[in-house]
Amino acid sequence: MEKQTAGRDQLGDFAPKFAELNDDVLFGEVWSREAQMSPRDRSLITCSALMAQGLFPQLEAHMAIVKPNGVTQELITHLAFYSGWPKAWSAFGLANKIYATED
């Protein structure tokens, strides 16, 4: 997995400990434990939780991660029935930008 630096890039000066925990523990240690759970499964769980809570800025960032992990926009259709139709509309707005771009 690619080394995550978003915490340090965005909050390193303002909240250095939070940035360190984000980059080194959450993404460095937890996400890298592929023997326990695949990146695809982690992506499914993470996006499901973010969409269900309506946390769309974070969902947008994670949608960019899930695409290379093999998750399709079908995830949003499925979640629409469990987390809400309006949330699915919002999520599709984000996903459309990500999935419409060519690699």
From TrEMBL:
Pfam families given for it? Answer: CMD
**Gene3D superfamilies xref list:** AhpD-like
Domain of life of the source:
Bacteria
InterPro entries assigned to the protein according to its UniProt record, in alphabetical order: 4CMD/NDH-1_regulator, AhpD-like, CMD-like
What GO molecular-function term can you cite, just one?
A: peroxiredoxin activity
All copies of domain Carboxymuconolactone decarboxylase-like, residue ranges: 16-96
> Which PANTHER family would you find in this protein's record?
4-CARBOXYMUCONOLACTONE DECARBOXYLASE FAMILY PROTEIN (PTHR33570), BLL4600 PROTEIN (PTHR33570:SF9)
Name this protein carries in UniProt: Gamma-carboxymuconolactone decarboxylase subunit-like protein
